Amino acid sequence: MEASQQRSYLCIDGKCFYASVECAERGLNPFETNLVVADPDRGKNALCLAISPKLKSLGVHNRCRLSDIPGNIKYEIALPRMKLYRDYCADIYALYLDYFAPEDIHVYSIDEAFIDVTNYLPMYDVDAQQLARKLMNEIANKLRVPTTAGIGTNLYLAKIALDITAKKTRDHMGFLDEELYRNTLWNHMPLTDFWGIGRGKVNRLSHYGIFTMRDIANAGPDLLYRIFGIDAELLIDHAWGRETCLMKDIKNYRNKSHSVSFS
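^ that's the sequence the OP posted. Answer follows.
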């Protein structure tokens, strides 16, 4: 299939992954259980690596500290177990391999993966939403871990559908194509909700009265190149919902240099 033809990508993420795994290990429902993953031996200011969806629904922020959790909320603390989380991640990847070839899967983080499902939809006689739901249900049934899915016509839109759109739906799935992206998210704020835009970029853009993706799309390219250099090209494409990178480009990418660092 040519790159110019419409493709379908899934971006699937474990919902509050570490906390959900700990709930699964205890036979608990993460949507009904107040649980945090943290080391209490580090004191009241210990960082919570994850909190359960139930705690999030009560207004507790992810990556908070134990001292940030209101005193009237009772919760269970689970010590971090990174090997266990990696094992769950491997089990989820093995499940994906039951449906897709490795070259169509990119593991983005321990609990998040991109899948190019374009050529599998006619094979399984489903649409992208049906396939995403099947995978989500199978992960929930076999591993008892809830997931969220973004569906897009390119890799960027799949990620944005996961990060922004799916959070507003009851079925934890979001879909975006370029037109829907512009119609629904061009005025979305803050810009930091968008993949690849950090506070530094937001602060620099704000000096020029640019606060939304619509503003970026309508800004003069010369201005954006003057601010960000070559990085402006990607910013402009993403403002319009465009992404030229394909799964094969990710698989073929090789670092020009190799280094080891400690931090």
